[in-house]
Amino acid sequence: MQLSLSRADLIRTHNFIGGRWVDSSGRTFGVRDPSNDSTIAEVVDSDGSDARAAVDAAHAALPMWRAAPARARAQTLKRWHALIQQHEEDLARIISREQGKPLAEARGEILYAASYVEWFAEEATRCYGDVIPETVRGRKMLVIKEGVGVVAAITPWNFPAAMIARKIAPALAAGCTVVAKPAEDTPLTSLALALLAEEAGVPAGVLNVVTASRSRAAELVDVWLADVRVRKITFTGSTPVGKHLARESSSTLKRLSLELGGNAPFIVFDDADVDASVDGLMAAKFRNGGQTCVSPNRVFVQAAVHDAFVEKLVARVAALRVGPPSDAGSQIGPMINQQAIRKIERHIADALAHGARLVVGGTRVLDSEGPNYLAPAVLTGATAAMLLAKEETFGPVAAVFRFDTEDEVLAAANGTPYGLAAYFYSRDLKRIWRVSAAIECGIVGINEGLVSSETAPFGGIKESGYGREGSRHGLDDYMDVKYLCQGGLS
Q1: What is the per-residue DSSP string for 144-208?
Q2: Is the residue at 2 inside a domain?
Q3: What is the pLDDT of residues 121-164, one digit of tens each?
Q4: How far, rounded to the nearest angstrom, does the alpha carbon of residue 310 sit from its chain's CA centroid?
Q5: Are 13 and 39 in a shared domain?
Q6: Which domain does 345 fall in, by range?
Q7: DSSP 204
Q8: How many domains is the chain built from?
Q9: Does the annotation mark 293 as catalytic?
Q10: Where are the alpha helices (DSSP H) in 87-161?
């Protein structure tokens, strides 16, 4: 792998199981560079036996880790946090190479990932229970919290550091042990983080990472679904896969945290600051090339400000620089693969067939660099009949819908089975409270395009899943509540 790192040993290609780097299957699959489709590394293509070995290790380590004082777990996580920060540049280069996001964005992701580790290190020591006032003389009633047990974490490719950090950190803080499977497109980041966790003093078996190709992933995950020792599944990905995990884990009644698909509306009312709303959309829509689960998928603009908004938006989008992730001036890197490109092109073609107008972008560019580059696009005249109104485009395409009334846009915004994020811009205080209450989603950005924070709960409703990541609620999702009742004390 030709990648300039201060620490070349951060590139790991074996599974991390029970504190050892192992290759039991003998099979490998290639990790691709989306900027040019070249193979940059070969990692272990795990099978069911690797999945069982990971659970064996996690289960064996659980009593020791669960019994460790909260402060000891916190100190270990703080050492991991410090190592992540220390190796920010190397980790960012790995992300940029295997995922395709510009290097500046990759650096931001590493800091974002580290923030979750630091937050949950601190939350580990604040996990309080309750003392229930006596209802009967001589009886003491207490509530304590305990880690759920072995946690299986399954993470996506779009934020390979942040997504695994915000699952592993709360699990370890709560006293759980972890078996993790990163996305097949981006395993190198997770393996590098596992190496740093080992160096931070995370005991053998507490964190285990296994990699698998797309064709073998189901075999590996099915082992975890069937294993009664795995007490929780945490997954970020598509709604169909999330439903499969919910069905197949029901026989052992596992806890589930599911952060699934979205179809985020971005609403601009006629009393909004148009310049601020364009700024917010640019930040929310085009980060990571539009490949984020909270990226606005439907942009609703009230008629009175529609034309002014579109004019300003088109000028901003046309100025975005598409280029290789290694180029310091790049703002939009390659899409993750050809499948992603084809879906974006299908959505654009369908929209045009239904009467939309392509104002800027939407074509493949930089063919000499690689096949996965697409010019960011703006479509106007979007309607509910179009595919892009029903499915996540997951790319740099802003589809603008014109609307007339508040009731009309709320019905359209909520007219989807998904409910992860929504955004709206207004300067009317009454409208802000009214729309905030009416919008059906787990996250609302009000005059703000960047909503994610380690201190805030992240998650959705409806078919966007359940459970929360980040904040104090994110720690509770990895803990069971136990009630203690002691009598005979009078």
Answers
A1: EEEE-SEEEEE--SSSTTHHHHHHHHHHHHHT-EEEEE--TT-HHHHHHHHHHHHHTTPPTTTEE
A2: no
A3: 999 999 999 999 999 999 999 999 999 999 999 999 999 999 99
A4: 29
A5: yes
A6: 264-453
A7: T
A8: 2
A9: yes
A10: 88-99, 103-123
Q: pLDDT of 199-222, one tens digit each?
A: 999 999 999 999 999 999 999 999
Q: Are 389 and 430 in contact (CB under 8 A)?
A: no
Q: What would the pLDDT profile of 235-293 be if each residue is shown by its tens digit?
A: 999 999 999 999 999 999 999 999 999 999 999 999 999 999 999 999 999 999 999 99
Task: Work out the widest C-alpha separation in the chain, in whole angstroms.
Answer: 83
User: Which residue in the list 98, 259, 454, 463 is annotated as catalytic?
Assistant: 259
Q: Which of 176, 293, 441, 463 is labelled catalytic?
A: 293
**Block residue for tokens 């160096």:** 199
Same domain, residue pair 237 and 269: no
Instruction: Give yes or no: residues 67 and 91 share one domain.
Output: yes
Q: State both tokens at 218.
A: 């189901």
Mention every residue, 6+ apart, whose C-beta is less than 8 A from residue 315.
Answer: none
How many angstroms separate the CA atoms of 393 and 32, rounded? Answer: 22
Residue 444, beta-bridge partner list = 422
Residue 176 falls in the annotated catalytic set? no
Give me 22's structure tokens: 């192992």
Indicate which CATH number applies to the domain containing 413. Answer: 3.40.309.10
Domain membership of residue 207 (yes or no) is yes
- The terminus-to-terminus CA distance of the chain in angstroms comes to 71
What is residue 419's three-state secondary structure? strand
Q: What does the block give as tokens for 249? A: 């884990």
The one-letter amino acid code at 446 reads I
Residues 105 and 146 in one domain: yes
pTM for the whole structure: 0.96
Q: What is the CA radius of gyration of the chain?
A: 23
**Positive/negative CA dihedral, 102, 324, 99, 194:** negative
Q: CA-to-CA distance for 43 and 29, rounded, in angstroms?
A: 6
